[in-house]
């Protein structure tokens, strides 16, 4: 099916099942511990051996020698794999990291060996017997030292243009009546998902099957094939349940590659889980950014110059962090300039983490907007409303498909009680606590990609949907069931969703906030084809047939849906493909975040007291699971604002706090009641389902809303995240 014109009325619009707050299909499985994660399959690959990865003890250099003899002779050891016997290993298409030091070492904890043994304990013990001698080389570990030499990042497939110019920014900024020119820093951040990266691999001839924790099946099969040097068709990945990913499991990581290599070598299944202390330096992370924002405005508050320059670092050939994405689309301004520069650093690879680009970009832009509003003497909400635009700021001929940004701002301000906010700083006390309010706008792209599904109707009237879409805990199973149920006129209990198997029809998987709109469009296409098959089988006119309450109806005639499959299962498969609407229209999601914080006047301790998110993301497929996604994003944003920082040892080149003891993330006691509100919106330009993703919108804008609230409470402007108490303590207002 091809989608190339805005959607009109269709069966989805009934919203009898879709759009309702159904419980997640897998909730009971997860809460009772019966959902099976990648490492927990005990019967699919009998007699599995265990692999244990030894990471490099240096950040840059070369393996001079490696002695594995004692490890190979240890009890239970089946093999020790290094660059000497692993065979050639390539590189995937999305990540540039090499999965084995061979013998050059690119970053700390890059795998140098894998021990395979009968038990995990034997493999771990034997790894300590490997002796590795290194020749160290000087490394580049400090982004700040590379600012002057870092070039504009090369253009890549994702992230938009790395340099843009509209009008004459330099002249407009120089002439601006009111200016902001500040630099903001967002540190390296870890995905820190609960479930570690894990894989069980087994070979059947020249074909490999892996039970693994991965978000995007199509990228995974492609990249594993490229790395192993085998056809993509010879790779099968299975990942029905994922314990969190946040982009860190987008495609192939070292557990998947090395489990497959080890299983091929020992000729039996091998399972590998990355131990927690190795994950931070071994896998990808959100890279540090240093961002300069320059805003120029007239005295009445209209932006005339918008400039955003950003620096990040990565391994050679790696991607930049596209922080300017949000700046390019969120506010009006005739004269504009953006540039992202990329330094080469010898740290673990920086790559996609929830809302790549927009999340760290807005952490800078939305503080700068707050600073400009203060200089203008304007309310921060009204300043943003004044600079709204209904067309792409870089292309006036490209309107937004929908843009209820002002409604998000107005709704949020009213619900949050924004009118009670004091304009001056440090004016509200509650005992020892200084109280402040802050807000920020939010934007996140609404991509959608080709997606397929297969649907099967049996004689009992049960409908089975198969698609390779994955579920990170986001509710993918449930929205797939809801979409199919709505299309076929069935209760949700009559639909079974089977996900997370690369042998099923292809989708873009879970990533980039495109999973939900894409997979539901694919299910829509497959069900449309099945409706035609059913109608034909029952003798109905396809265009007139209605599917309601387990029946097919037309005029006065009715037939049970199940009767169409009386002589055997009916199967339909289709792919939803998309035309050029996304090029002709700017398609985005929008939001506004409001925060109230308390800061202890004596200790500088910061407590978030309440938060509100107002989101516009097209049709909401399931308000319960969507709310869960948004408050999860808000929690993550609080962590980014106040806690999260991977600290670099700039002498030795590694992230020091590489575990969940040293890397701070929010816990229950840190999080107050969070409120999420969705505007009643549909966007017919995105798909027949008229829904957009929401999982990343809930994060963008949260951290700066907290930062702006801290400033309102204390009068201390912190431009280097995270906002920790030592950055406040000596600047707090006079303590009475």
Automatic annotation (TrEMBL):
NCBIfam families: peri_hyde_PaoC (NF041671). Residues 32-138 form the Aldehyde oxidase/xanthine dehydrogenase a/b hammerhead domain. Keywords: Molybdenum, Oxidoreductase. PANTHER family: ALDEHYDE OXIDASE 1-RELATED (PTHR11908:SF132), XANTHINE DEHYDROGENASE (PTHR11908). It is an enzyme of class 1 (oxidoreductase). It holds the Pfam family MoCoBD_1. This is Xanthine dehydrogenase YagR molybdenum-binding subunit. SUPFAM superfamilies: CO dehydrogenase molybdoprotein N-domain-like, Molybdenum cofactor-binding domain. Its EC number is 1.17.1.4. InterPro entries: Ald_Oxase/Xan_DH_a/b, Ald_Oxase/Xan_DH_a/b_sf, Ald_Oxase/xanthine_DH-like, AldOxase/xan_DH_MoCoBD1, AldOxase/xan_DH_MoCoBD2, AldOxase/xan_DH_Mopterin-bd_sf, PaoC-like. It comes from the Bacteria. GO terms for molecular function: iron ion binding; xanthine dehydrogenase activity.
């Amino acid at each position: 099916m091809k989608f190339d014109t805005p959607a009109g009325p269709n069966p989805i619009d009934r919203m009898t099942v879709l759009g309702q707050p159904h419980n997640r299909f897998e909730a009971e499985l997860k809460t009772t511990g019966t959902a099976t994660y990648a490492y927990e399959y005990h019967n699919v690959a009998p007699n599995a051996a265990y692999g244990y990865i030894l990471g490099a003890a240096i950040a840059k250099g070369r393996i001079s020698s490696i002695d594995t003899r004692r490890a190979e002779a240890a009890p239970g050891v089946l093999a020790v794999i290094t660059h000497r016997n692993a065979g050639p290993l390539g590189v995937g298409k999305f990540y540039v990291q090499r999965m084995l030091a061979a013998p050059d070492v690119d970053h700390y904890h890059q795998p140098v060996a894998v021990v395979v043994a009968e038990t995990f304990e034997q493999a771990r013990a034997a790894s300590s017997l490997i002796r590795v001698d290194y020749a160290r080389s000087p490394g580049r570990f400090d982004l700040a030292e590379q600012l002057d030499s870092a070039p504009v990042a090369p253009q890549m497939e994702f992230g938009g243009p790395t340099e843009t110019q509209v009008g004459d920014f330099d002249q407009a900024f120089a002439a601006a009546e009111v200016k902001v020119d500040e630099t903001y820093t967002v540190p390296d951040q870890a995905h820190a998902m609960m479930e570690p990266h894990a894989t069980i691999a087994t070979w059947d001839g020249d074909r490999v099957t892996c039970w693994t924790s991965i978000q995007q099946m199509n990228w995974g099969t492609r990249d594993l094939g490229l790395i192993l040097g085998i056809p993509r068709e010879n790779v099968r990945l299975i990942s029905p349940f994922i314990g969190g990913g946040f982009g860190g499991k987008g495609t192939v990581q070292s557990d998947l590659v090395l489990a497959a290599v080890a299983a091929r070598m020992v000729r039996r299944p091998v399972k590998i889980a990355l131990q927690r202390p190795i994950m931070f330096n071994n896998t990808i992370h959100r890279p540090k950014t240093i961002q300069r924002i320059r805003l120029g405005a007239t005295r009445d508050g209209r932006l005339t110059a918008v400039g955003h320059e950003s620096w990040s670092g990565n391994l050679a050939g790696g991607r930049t962090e596209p922080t300017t994405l949000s700046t390019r689309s969120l506010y009006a301004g005739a004269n504009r300039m953006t540039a992202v520069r990329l330094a080469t650093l010898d740290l673990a690879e920086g790559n996609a983490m929830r809302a790549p680009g927009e999340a760290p970009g807005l952490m800078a832009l939305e503080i700068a907007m707050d600073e400009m509003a203060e200089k203008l003497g304007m309310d921060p909400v009204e300043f943003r409303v004044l600079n709204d635009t209904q067309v792409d700021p870089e292309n006036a001929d490209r309107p937004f498909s929908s843009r209820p940004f002002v409604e998000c701002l107005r709704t949020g301000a009213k619900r949050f009680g924004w009118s009670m906010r004091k304009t001056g700083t440090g004016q509200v006390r509650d005992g020892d606590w200084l109280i402040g309010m802050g807000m920020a706008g939010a934007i996140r792209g609404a991509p959608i990609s080709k997606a397929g599904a297969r649907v099967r109707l049996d004689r009992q009237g049960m409908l089975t949907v198969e698609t390779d879409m994955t579920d990170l805990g986001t509710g993918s199973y449930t929205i797939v069931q809801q979409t199919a149920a709505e299309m076929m006129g069935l209760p949700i209990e009559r639909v079974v969703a089977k996900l997370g198997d690369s042998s099923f029809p292809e989708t873009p998987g879970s990533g980039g906030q495109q999973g939900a709109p894409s997979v539901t469009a694919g299910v829509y296409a497959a069900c449309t084809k099945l409706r035609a098959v059913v109608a034909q089988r029952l003798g109905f006119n396809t265009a007139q047939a209605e599917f309601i309450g387990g029946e097919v109806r037309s005029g006065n005639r009715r037939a049970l849906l199940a009767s169409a499959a009386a002589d055997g299962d009916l199967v339909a498969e289709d792919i939803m493909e998309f035309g050029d609407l996304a090029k002709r229209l700017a398609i985005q999601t929008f939001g506004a975040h409001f925060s109230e914080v308390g800061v202890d006047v004596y200790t500088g301790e910061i407590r978030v007291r309440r938060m509100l998110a107002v989101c516009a993301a097209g049709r909401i497929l399931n308000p319960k699971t969507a709310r869960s996604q948004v408050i999860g994003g808000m929690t993550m944003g609080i962590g980014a604002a106040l806690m999260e920082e991977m600290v670099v040892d700039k002498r030795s080149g590694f992230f020091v706090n590489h575990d969940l003891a040293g890397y701070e993330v929010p816990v229950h006691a840190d999080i107050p009641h969070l409120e999420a509100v969705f505007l009643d919106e549909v966007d017919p330009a995105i798909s027949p389902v008229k829904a957009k993703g929401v999982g990343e919108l809930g994060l963008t804008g949260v951290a700066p809303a907290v930062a702006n609230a801290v400033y309102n409470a204390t009068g201390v402007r912190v431009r280097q995240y995270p906002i920790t108490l030592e950055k406040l303590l000596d600047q707090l207002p006079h303590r009475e």
